[in-house]
Amino acid sequence: MLLEIPFEVLTSLVFSILGTFTVGFPRTASLYFAMAFNVFCIVSCGESVGIMFNTLFDHTGFAINIASVLISVAVLTAGVFSLHIPAFLQAFNHLSPVKWAVGNLAPFSMRGLAFTCSLDQQGPTGLCPISTGEQALQLYNLDHDPRLYLLALAVCTIGYRLVSFLLLW
Length: 169
Fold this sequence. Notes:
The protein is mainly α. The protein has seven helices and no strands.
C-alpha cells in the first residue's frame, strides 16, 4: 500500500487535469482537487473490493465477475441514472463510493452554469426547462454541501480498506 499510494496520487492529479480542464468544467482549484480526491478514493475502493473478493473466492474469474456486478450496480444507483430507487438499493447505495463522488462533484461542477436550448426545446412559456446548473442540481436532488460528501467518501474509502485488510488477515 505504501508503494502504490504515491502513484495513485500522481495518476489522480493527472486524470483531474484531463477530467476538469479539457472537458469544459469550471476551471477552479476546488473542482480540480475534488476530482483528484474522488479518483484516488474510487481507485482505492476498487482495489479494496478486488482484495476482498479475491480473498473470499479461490477462482479469480468468479471474484472479478462478482466485483464487476456490484460496481456496475453502484454506478447505476449513484443518483444520475435513476432518481428513485428501491429501499434495498438505496441502502446499498450508501455503501458505494460512487454515490459520494457524484454527490460532491455535481455541486462543484454545476453551480454557476447557464444552459440554453433551441426553439423546439422551449416550453409553452418560451423558457428552457432547465436554464441553470442550480436547477439541474435540484432536479437530481444533488443541491447540498459537497464538503460533507467529500468527508463521507473519505470515510467510505478508509472503511473499504479496513474491511479488505481484515478479510485478508
